[in-house]
Batch of 3 targets.
Target 1
Amino acid sequence: MIGKKVLITGASGMLGSNLLSLLGYKNLIGCSNDFDITSLEIVTAKLNQEKPEIIIHAAAYTDVEACEADMDKAYKVNTIGTQNLVNYCIDKDLLFIYISSTGIYGERKNVAYTEFDIVKPTTVHHKSKYEGEKVVQNHLNKYLILRTSWLYGGKITHNKNFVYKRFLEAKSKNIIYADSSQIGNPTYVVDFVTQIETLINNKQYGIFNCVNKAVSVTRYDYVKKIVELFDLKCRVAIAPDGMFSRTAPVSKNESAINYKLSLLDLNIMEDWEKSLDKYIQQLKSEKDG
């Protein structure tokens, strides 16, 4: 165990809870919903009290559809909340880790994005996350901005467990539908946490894509693989146009490759199907246990 004091925002979420349980540091401080990052006073008081050496900022307003309806909340949480944390760090020697999304790249390409591609987000959510990125870049020297995609994992009981929800849906039906129009990288939260720790331990800074390897994988491919790995007989069909219509103009391409990690020989993220199989085997044990 390494003697770092690490403060994690969003500690009750899927990523935050896994960071708390998996990171190999002695002193982990989890800040959950009662830690209001939009309040500069609350943020300053908490950080002055804890004096962390590393801050992992995993808290965010992640409901992409709701962000379109409430732009003020999106920017208040995702941008101003980040600014409040960054303000504390400006004159201190600590590492700030900001969790972002490959969705910020926008819709300029139809193949996987690298960290060197131009960023042109299309939704309020992704714009507010990108503004948070810029706050970090403009004011800090020691930072990691980590762009991930289609993150899954955690306990069965977690209310945003996409994989287990698809299992329950497929178990109760003969046919389910999935969208084939969007591509991305299903990414296992355990792999992501391990990658974060690898970057910290190797004293890396800057912007990195952190996703499991996936080439042109659609939501349909993802759901079909979930049903297959659970050994269910339910048929997965491609959803007709408009079945999953959204208010938010989400990019059809959220796929990325860990280009910088690979160049540095630090890419530990596995193939998406291998990691998904590992997680589903764990879920089966948890479900039957």
Target 2
Amino acid sequence: MTQTIQVGDISIANDAPMVLIGGLNVLESESLALETAQTFADICKSLAIPFIFKASFDKANRSSVSSYRGAGLEAGLKILEQVKSSCNVPLITDIHEPHQAAPVAEIVDILQLPAFLSRQTDLVKAMAKTGKVINIKKAQFLSPAEMGNILQKFEEAGNSQLILTERGTSFGYKNLVVDMLGFPIMKDFGYPLLFDVTHSLQLPGGQSSSAGGRRKDVTTLARSGLAQKIAGLFIEAHPDPSKAKCDGPCALPLDKLKPFLEQMKELDVLVKAQDDIDTA
């Protein structure tokens, strides 16, 4: 049985209707954040898809020292707080250091543990201590089964309000691969599983000093993930991906969001209406 994680009036579970975590890779400006959040919120409301807005105040693991990192903790939290009040949406953002957990937890509804930092025990303990729902990104270098160790760290630290998110696995040079057979392994832990489609499209280091990406494959990959009966999707979008300050090659064009989500919702409903066939 899968657990149901509650975020306000949003129920997140592998056997519940799909939830969307969506937004910007990184906060570029307050106006862009508000525009993007409102667009997501309006479309999701029209399609009856529960929605949580995501944006990072800092991207601490950029490829190059000259890459844009974000608005920073203080300014970023002010922007996120404005988004929450203006657009009436719950929030998720990632943190990178233990001291960030408490102040960020005062603003957002879900704390996100970044993939590259998912084994950092001190960070896990600080996040668990907040009592917030935690979204755990699967590290690119970990197998699906190894996520059980990270779940155990949170549980022993007193927090079992947990979500897992698949985001691709390192495979060779400048490439990520998504193994669909890893989805049932992670679902067996009993927690909701999300699929971060846009980060899974990355080509790490594909543009020398920044990541490349395969935006053209976003629909194909998202369909494959939803076919696994999961809790929902994680999607980043941008009004003009060519001008995005981080991960533009992976971002969904914002004007394509509605037809994309229309297809995804239809698929989610179809898949979850079917009984699993025991072939063991």
Target 3
Amino acid sequence: MHSHSGQSTHITLLDRLRNRSDRDAWREFCDRYAALIRGYAKRRGLQDAECDDVLQEALLALTRSMPGFEYDPSRGRFRGYLRTVVSHLVSKRFCQKPVGSLLNDYETATESTDRDLDEDWEAEWRQYHLRIAMRVVESEFNENDRAAFDAYALAGQSAEEVATDLGLSVDQVYQSKSRITKRLMVLVAAQIEEEG
């Protein structure tokens, strides 16, 4: 589904979602967006079970609205529409909680500004794109390259330590990080272009 045909794959998926009975389209949508929706709900302070509920409620809301949905990029991106739906469902969850449970978690009980919501959504959106890109990296790079990248770029170990642990040269560690970072940048840029 992550073709390099620009927005066409994304727009095609949105068109397919208009048909409620297209199970493959909904499965594809879930593969794409479930982690994003759950991650955003979690970032906003919901527990795992509540995050799953938000995902289910979002899917139900979209199932009801997609038959009449017309994607028009001039009116905004789909990601903005999805953010609005999910943010509303997360807020609704907090309104349903007993006051006592909210008071136990002051941060959750305080009102978030629109800016906070936007920042949380954008942070989760970046993580979403990175997760998808990392799946591609896992299939394109060998185990040593990925292990060097994970340890050096993600875990923050020194290049020397990683080289010793993996039996590589320090230069190989630097090269692994550079190649994978460049590939991730290309993949994320393509994903963003595709989403419209």
